[in-house]
């Protein structure tokens, strides 16, 4: 996908959805680049093995040195509330990894998601928060209850954020489709 996005940047809450390796992160980063604001990359993922460490390193190289990196596995609402302002464009990558972290830490996923939604609802329309998330509802029904619960939480969170977002994009094979 080209680094050039052929439309002007509009601030607000932006949800970028897509499947694995669909181009979501690159698209979100390109949106942040055209914002003209200081770019903040809020990473929810962390290295569990060599393969993940390599993915993280590639993401960092691809972004370049002009990004502020903030890593947060669990408390997105607090970090977003501390970072959101008219000078920043925050890319949260990604919500589904954040949900995984919540589940693995034994956190109340429903409460945590509601806290995030509550904060996003009161953000100024002049702020820019780009939330990247996997669309997990287009595949097969997961075999285990934990996996089905995760899919359900991710699907509900995506719906809830899409409902309050100013803009929603869906990526397929690197091609963006504007949904809202």
Structural commentary:
With 180 residues, this protein is α/β, with parallel strands linked by helices. The protein has one domain: 3-Layer(aba) Sandwich (Rossmann fold). The protein has a 7-stranded mixed β-sheet with strand order 3-2-4-5-1-6-7, with helices on both faces. Strand 6 and strand 7 form a beta hairpin. Helix 3 packs parallel to helix 5 and helix 5 runs parallel beside helix 6. The longest helix is centred in the last third of the chain and has 20 residues. The model has no long low-confidence stretch (mean pLDDT 91).
Extended strand count: 7
Q: Roughly what percent helix?
A: 40-55%
Instruction: State the domain count.
Output: 1
Amino- and carboxy-terminal Cα gap: 21 Å
Regions with little confidence, pLDDT below 50 for 5+ residues: none
CATH architecture: 3-Layer(aba) Sandwich
Order of helices and strands: EHEHEHEHHEHEE
Enumerate how many helices there are, as a single number: 6
CATH topology: Rossmann fold
Q: What is the CATH superfamily?
A: P-loop containing nucleotide triphosphate hydrolases
CATH class designation = Alpha Beta
Strand content: 15-25%
Backbone shape: globular
The overall pLDDT, averaged over residues, is 91
- Radius of gyration over alpha carbons? 15 Å
